[in-house]
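Protocol step 4 of 6: structure prediction from sequence.
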Amino acid sequence: MDGTRLNKVNRQILKDLGEIFQRQSQTVFQGRMITVTAVRVSPDLGIAKVYLSIFPNNSKDEVFALVKTNVKTIRHELAQRIKNQMRIVPELLFYIDDSLDYIENIDRLLKE
């Protein structure tokens, strides 16, 4: 599979999922801010690994559990958005992106 096509699919899914999470943040996710930081689609377009950053950090686990329970509705909304571009809607696997926590920890350690 061409790398350029995979990059386009990654960007499109990232954009659409970002809009979905932004629209559902008040109703489904208790007003928490969820940011899609990265999407990596498998070469066969069957699986998409989605990395999420959740703010505020104190309730990260419960919001992530809400995302996991609503994965079917999120995938359905994604399918409604990309149905004209893609034949197959990839299965969504969500992961917490903790790179911001890592950066904050490094900054804190350097200041000491």
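Step 5 (inspection) to follow. The beta strands are 33-41, 47-55, 91-96.
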